[in-house]
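User: Please predict the structure of the protein below. I'd like the answer in C-alpha cell form so I can feed it into my own downstream comparison script.

Assistant: Understood. Taking the following sequence of 122 residues as input:
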Amino acid sequence: MKCDNCSSIMEWRVDGSSQGWYCNHCGWDVVTTYVPPIRLDETTYRVFAQGDQEMRPPQNQLKLIARLLLANYLVAKEELSSGAEFLVFEGQAEEALDVVHSLDKAGIVRRVEPDFSQYLDE
C-alpha cells in the first residue's frame, strides 16, 4: 500500500491497542483499535506448579510461590518440597500468562489447564 500523503510504501503493524498502516517516511497513518486475542479469551485457566522432593527450594522460588499462594515462606517451602503438583493460579488468560512467565523464569516446572500453548510465544 502506498501512502496517500507522500506515495512511500506503508508498513502494517500492531502498536499497543492500535493496528494499521504506517508511513515511515512522513508519519501518516490509517489505524483502528486492536484488542489482542488473549484479552478476549474468557476461559478460566488453572496453573499448577510441580514440587521437587530432591531439591531445597531457592529463595527466588520461595518468594514467588509465597506471593502466588498469598502464604508465608513455610507454606511455600512445604509445597515446593512436597514432590506433588499444586495449584498456584486460577483465572483469565492474560494473568495466567504472567504467572507462567514468572514460574518459567524461576525454574519451576508448571502445567496449565486447559491447553494454553497458543499464548506461550507472546
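That's the full C-alpha cell string. Helices lie at 37-40, 59-69, 73-81, 93-106.
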